[in-house]
């Protein structure tokens, strides 16, 4: 069930600039460091603050770009329900990304040590957050969506499809206070699809995408 490796950071940045004109460069020095244990590659992700005034509006912008990139091969099960109160950032993920923003404040693109799901295969999102240490955090639907834009061959595989959970985002189908679902991307029938999955359920084809901080943050 191996997935294709991520592109080199320079290639990711070049692709992102095609979709986000003027987004600029990223810190190449960071990508020259050794990856922390558990990470598979360096990931280039635009700061959502550079894309839109809110996280949810940045997601809407991203999905418009994904529709252009993949055309009819991109399907959004949520039918555009990306605004509050349906979707929100996970608290710790938001805190981790804020810390990375501060460390890379000269750039509009973050460089993040990341893995795209295989590390947590067959674990529920809730179980992932029980076992990760303070340096690992969930990537949200914006971050994973940008990963797919910058790495369009990510889902090309020769074995069983992997559904990439986005534990940095929490979803409430009823737009109430019950955020018991997690957005997820998967590849099926030649299409990239966005769906939601119950955060407390594990599945042999699901794995959570996560990022890693250079310095651990307390979970408070």
How would you portray this structure in words?
The chain is α+β, with helices and mostly antiparallel strands and 220 residues long. The protein has one domain. 26% of the residues lie in helices and 23% in strands. It is built from 5 helices and 11 strands; from the N terminus they run H-E-H-E-E-H-E-H-E-H-E-E-E-E-E-E. It has helices spanning 9-19, 55-70, 91-103, 125-131, 141-150; strands spanning 41-46, 74-76, 87-89, 109-115, 136-138, 163-165, 169-171, 181-188, 191-198, 206-208, 210-212. A 5-stranded mixed sheet has the order 2-9-8-6-10, with helices on one face. A 4-stranded antiparallel sheet has the order 1-4-11-5. A two-stranded antiparallel ribbon has the order 3-7. A hairpin with a 2-residue loop joins strand 8 and strand 9 (191-198). Helix 1 (9-19) crosses helix 5. The longest helix has 16 residues, at 55-70. The chain is globular, with a radius of gyration of 16 Å. The N and C termini lie far apart (36 Å). The mean pLDDT is 88.
